[in-house]
Amino acid sequence: MEYAVANLGVSLIMVLGHSGCSAVSAALGSQPLTPLLKQLAQPIRASFTSRARPGRGS
User: What is the tens place of the pLDDT at every residue in 1-58?
Assistant: First the structure.
C-alpha cells in the first residue's frame, strides 16, 4: 500500500475485513504473540483502547 501511494499515485485505498479475523482475536486475547502478530495486533489494540476511554464519544 505504501508503495502504491508513494510511487503510483494511488489516492484511495479500501481495506476490507472478514468475519472471524484471527488478528482481531489475537489482539483481544492474552496469549503471547509472535513478533509479526504483535505488529498486526498493536493498532487493533490501540483502536479498542481509544474507544474505551471515557469522553471519547461512541
Answer: 889 999 999 999 887 777 788 888 889 899 999 999 999 899 988 888 776 656 554 4
Radius of gyration of the chain (CA): 15
Residue count of the chain: 58
C-alpha 19/C-alpha 43 separation (Å) is 18
Instruction: Give CA–CA dist 26/18, Å, rounded.
Output: 15
The whole-angstrom separation of Cα 54 and Cα 58 is: 9
pTM: 0.51
